[in-house]
Design a protein that fits this description.
Elements (H helix, E strand, L loop, with lengths): L1 E4 L17 E4 L12 E2 L17 E9 L5 E6 L8 E2 L2 E2 L3 E11 L7 E9 L4
Parallel strand pairs: 1-2, 3-9
Antiparallel strand pairs: 4-5, 4-8, 6-7, 8-9
Amino acid sequence: MNFRIFSFGLFLFLGLSNSSKAQVDCDANVPTDLFIPNVITPNGDAKNDEFRVISGKLTKLHVEIFDRWGIKVYTMDGVNSIWDGTAYGSVQSAGTYYYSVEYSSTCAPSLVLKTGGYFTLLRSN
């Protein structure tokens, strides 16, 4: 049996007899170097002003951003997409936001990987 793993996690392989063998090849090109910020401060100082997902190995990127009540405030498509802390023409309030990311890498463009998490939008008074 041969297996090729394109995602992250714990895997269990069970053989049917003592003569079963498994070979596992993990693809080194699966992007493990995703950078997703945990804080943005969109105040115009060019430091952490935008929410963006960064990796040199992305071929596709789709991000949805939700406010603390679960309302989608922004959708990003494309590897160079950014969110500047505004939605529907309005500045969004400081607080915790949730992101959902779907992406593909250069090693397996047809494989869609998913992740999600929280970040904080800070605004100065």
